[in-house]
Amino acid sequence: DTEVTQTPKHLVMGMTNKKSLKCEQHMGHRAMYWYKQKAKKPPELMFVYSYEKLSINESVPSRFSPECPNSSLLNLHLHALQPEDSALYLCASTRGQNTNYGYTFGSGTRLTVV
Amino acid sequence: AQSVTQLGSHVSVSEGALVLLRCNYSSSVPPYLFWYVQYPNQGLQLLLKYTSAATLVKGINGFEAEFKKSETSFHLTKPSAHMSDAAEYFCAVSDVRGSTLGRLYFGRGTQLTVWP
Question: Which chain A residue has the Cα nearest residue B50?
């Protein structure tokens, strides 16, 4: 299995909703990442988990809450989002702690906040 | 600090023509460099990477890139464009080498259009 699987593929939520994005990989990668990508822009790093511990938080608003329950699973909990949070949310993973092998990306969750 | 500059946000070529996408990097250490491709509504797929071995790197789908330290460049080329190559291409640099936790810095991307 050489994939990163993200669910759901599409999500529409209201500003008062609570929802979660899920990311799963079975490649034994020990670093996992959340990125946010707006249209026609490069991905922006949000969070990095290394060995199931939060290593980097790029000053992301608290309405985004990451969770790494085990080495294969990464969640992103969403609450009270704003319309400007609408974007493609990408999960990625790397072998070990370094990026030198390159990331493996999931296909993303297209989030629309209404 | 590491950074990547992609020259040209849009590149258009005819099918069968040479593809050249430009990337220049800035890095305080010998870099690891990457090219990714993104098709509409998809995630990013790794095309190729430079990790200090051969300076000419071959990737998937007939793409290759040459690391030129003197020019701080890592341009992506393909001899003959195909319609299926139309996509967004991102150049990226890793901020550390070795086993220390690092992150990728992406360029702004280049949209490749291929005309029939």
Answer: A100
